[in-house]
Amino acid sequence: MSRRHSRETAFQVLFQIDINKEAKHDDLFKVMDGDISVFAIQIIKGVIEKKKELDQIIEENLENWSISRIGAVEKTLLRIAVYEMKHVEETPYKVAVNEAVELAKRFHDEQSGKFINGVLSKITRS
């Protein structure tokens, strides 16, 4: 499984966790088609464990927004990208940003990708 596909899988699981507060994390892993890669599991577990830290970093880099106003797609993708930027040494910042933007365009729209790019660009400079 490619890293891009692993990120997509991680996004799908984390998105479900974010919108379905009643879902059990283990159940979400079970319903995913096929095997989940080690990299996808690393992202999922990392984002869950470091959610408060990631949200704080995101919040500090928003202009005229609060994290509570961000849609679930954007919030999930921002968390994944910030997790990779701060905790996955082998992922270059540019790759984390580009992958988040591409997933935003795929799962939401062009504006979503621009918003994510803006926030993540600010984080890479901080």
From TrEMBL:
User: Keyword Transcription regulation, does the record have it?
Assistant: yes
Any idea which UniProt keywords this protein has?
RNA-binding, Transcription, Transcription antitermination, Transcription regulation
Family listed: Belongs to the NusB family.
User: What SUPFAM superfamilies would the database entry show?
Assistant: NusB-like
Pfam families noted in UniProt: NusB
The membrane-spanning stretches of this chain are none
Keyword hit for Membrane: no
Q: What is the protein's species of origin?
A: Alkalibacillus silvisoli
> Which gene holds the coding sequence for this protein?
nusB
Its job: Involved in transcription antitermination. Required for transcription of ribosomal RNA (rRNA) genes. Binds specifically to the boxA antiterminator sequence of the ribosomal RNA (rrn) operons.
List the protein's name. Transcription antitermination protein NusB
Which part of the chain is the NusB/RsmB/TIM44 domain?
5-125
Q: Which NCBIfam families match?
A: nusB, PRK00202.1-1
